[in-house]
Amino acid sequence: MFQNNPNAYPIASLTPNLSKAALELADIVACTDIIAGTSILNAANVAICGKASWKHPATGKFHPSTLYSMIFAVSGDRKTTADNLACSPIYEEETQNILKHAESIKAFKSAHTTWSSIHAGLKNRIKKLTREGKDTTDAEAEAEAHAALEPNEPRLRRLIRQDITKRAIYEALEGDGATAAFMVDEGQILLEGDIMRHLGVLNKIWDGAAILTYDRAKHDTIIVRNPRACISIMVQPTVFNKFLQRHGAITHGSGHFARYLFARSPSIQGYRHTNAINTGLIDLVPFHHRITALLQLDAGEVAPMQHALLEFDEQAKIEWFQIAYKVEADLKPGSFLSDIGDFASKYMDIVGRIATTMHVFDDVPGKISVDTLLRAEAIACWHLNEYKAIFSTEMQRSEESIDAEAVYGYLYSRYYRRNMNSVSKNYVRQRCGVRGERYYRALDELIMMRAIEIQRSQNNTQIIVFNPQFFYENPI
């Protein structure tokens, strides 16, 4: 209940190397399988960002392999810890790039000072020859040749971006095939930042638009070609709900959220087990080594390496069309996907992106196999069910259900966690945040769910009595 997904994350559907890394991450961090699985998939996707595209079996066009994802988890559920461990080689590479850039800037400034001195001397020579009425042809040719040798200021190779403006997005992706990863473990940074006011740009980046332009003053234009960018947002449910209240109509209506892999992670606080002896990393070691190898393939280059153009093998193509047929059939009025057609229209694209990510990360030669395709489809299907649970009109909760969640959360955090199993009904009414008739309807909802019952004390005061089995099975 209440944001808990009863279905385990399909970690086994990840390729074996990724699956082992996810299981070890969940064990070491003591986080949910949802946080561990999505963290590993996102880290792998960032590592291959811009390095591969896949060929659509129906259209023959090549599509990006980058993913957008959003994971919900309450504060204290170690989503940041899991992300930091899964992505540690990415953050380390980012740090090294910043340090290398600082050294490059020092060398650039020294070289530019020398160049400027020579350039100034050549200009003075031309002025002197002009005053003396002498021929300046040779001097001008020398000055022109020297001007062509002006050192270029080195560009910082940054992959990870957080709070970023529209202009900064274009600058980060300027050029052909440039990459970026918008990654935050506090989703409020992105959701309330400038980036979410430019959903059309983010949609085009996800699509891998052939060209994007940003016109600045004095006819200065930033040109972006074939951009590749990942988005990974970890956010608390309350923050996301507030964002939906303000911007949900535009964000959802634009089809932006249909591009995301959504995931709700239930809280397991109070039920986590930490191993007494930490034997160190085992399966995460080769995972980290592979990320480092992928990141360093184009180290030192301003432009990314030429990325691979992948396609599915013949058996995978047959399976692809069978899956696509089922998706289309489920779009009929009254069918499972009829009220989330926006996500369904992106579904096969998402399957292709996940399959490409796993194929490239595992360094498999040749075409993408049917086994990888089916693994990717199992993962995409899990996220499809999450999208439906969040955005489907038929699955949206009633006012009573929402109020019952608020009251239950208050009872759980304020009393059950303190080993209390009953509390005054009026005392809760005054403090739980749900007022008037809505409070009593929320209690009725909890009673029907057998979470609580109402009893009378010796002085005839009404008491809310907890069902310990229900509270144990439904942690907040």
Automatic annotation (TrEMBL):
Entries under InterPro entries matching the protein: DUF3987
A Pfam family this chain is assigned to: DUF3987
The protein's name: DUF3987 domain-containing protein
Organism of provenance: Dyella agri
